[in-house]
Amino acid sequence: MIIQQFKSHIEELFGHLLKDFKENDEYGYCNFTTAHYKKLGCATNITPEIVLQAAEKNVDLIVTHHDAWDFVYGMKERCVELLKEHNIAHFYIHLPLDYAEFGTCNSLLRLLGASNIIQQSHHVEGQSTIGIGEFGTSIMIEELVGVMENLLGERVYFQRNNNKVIRRIGMITGAGNGTNQLREALNRNCDVYITGEKTLYTVQYARFINMNLIIGSHTFTEIFGVRSLAHKVQEKFQNVVVIQLNEEHHETME
User: Fold this and answer.
1) Which of 27, 29, 121, 181 has the fewest CB atoms inside 10 Å of its own CB, making it the most exposed?
2) Choices 3.40.1390.30, 3.40.50.2000, 3.40.50.150, 3.40.50.970: CATH for 101-220
3) What is d(CA 47, CA 31) in angstroms, rounded to the nearest whole number?
4) Arithmetic mean of pLDDT, 98-119
5) Same topology for domains 3-98+222-244 and 101-220, yes or no?
6) Is residue 225 within 8 Å of 251, Cβ to Cβ?
7) pLDDT band at residue 253 under the 50/70/90 scheme
8) pLDDT tens track for 186-245
9) Where in the chain are the domains?
10) How does pLDDT run across 137-166, given as a tens digit for each residue?
11) What is the pTM of this model?
């Protein structure tokens, strides 16, 4: 797979979402050359540790959800240095992957067992609306917590704020900690709201409105969308090997 083929496939997969976020640095390419890319490593985040791990595993293309954040001062520059040093290309795609049909929210909803996607997360007035999925059969929140912990491989935080069984899930993977998103889950008759970050306001408002709440980590609520993207690349270019790069559970709730 060469860069032109990869770019064309990304355009096919994301369509108008690339145009919608073209000016916002929500996706990008780094250190691509005329090389043939044969081994793809996927992760939620790009960090110096991820680049070095990719080099050890002979990965020549890293695909992530996040670019290195500018406010983690100096890390982006160090990642670029290491990518160049080890001749590794990097592609990241943020909001378009959040809103894609196969993206972060829908991937986790389906893996949790939601058989019906009622609403896909999308972008409205600078904010993410929630994704909504439904189970075929209702379950208890404790059972859902167990399923989520097994998927994420980490402890999650939860509040049982009412006695409902769980049928309808409202979700934003990653930083869906806004009270407006909890309010949307309430207004759409969700039985639980799931996200990847919390603040004082998240837990206060969930309790105030009696909304059941489950919170995993930002990294591991979003990895499944990156994995879905990597597998779609592999479906198109069957000679490409895909591996998931290992990220630490820095954000685990205790």
Assistant:
1) 29
2) 3.40.1390.30
3) 15
4) 97
5) yes
6) no
7) low
8) 999 999 999 999 999 999 999 999 999 999 999 999 999 999 999 999 999 999 999 999
9) 3-98+222-244, 101-220
10) 999 999 999 999 999 999 999 999 999 899
11) 0.95
**In angstroms, rounded to a whole number, what is the distance separating the alpha carbons of residues 49 and 46?**
8
What was the pLDDT predicted at 250? 85
User: What tokens were used for 27?
Assistant: 């996706």
CB atoms within 10 A of CB 36: 13
Q: Which residue has the tokens 């909001």?
A: 95
The span from the CA of 80 to the CA of 245, in Å, is 18
Please give the Cα distance from 101 to 204 (Å, whole number).
31
φ/ψ of residue 216, rounded to 5 = -95, -160
DSSP secondary structure string, 197-233?
A: ---HHHHHHHHHTT-EEEE--HHHHHHHHHHHHHHHH
d(CA 111, CA 15): 25
Alpha carbon dihedral 106, 110, 112, 115, in 10-degree steps, equals 120
In the 8-state DSSP scheme, what is residue 22? Answer: G
186, 211 contact by CB (below 8 A): yes
Phi-psi region of 87 (alpha: psi -120 to 50; beta: other; left: phi over 0): left
DSSP string, 49-103: HHHHHHHHTT-SEEEESSPPPTTSTTHHHHHHHHHHHTT-EEEEE-HHHHHSTTS
Encoded amino acid at 113, one letter: G
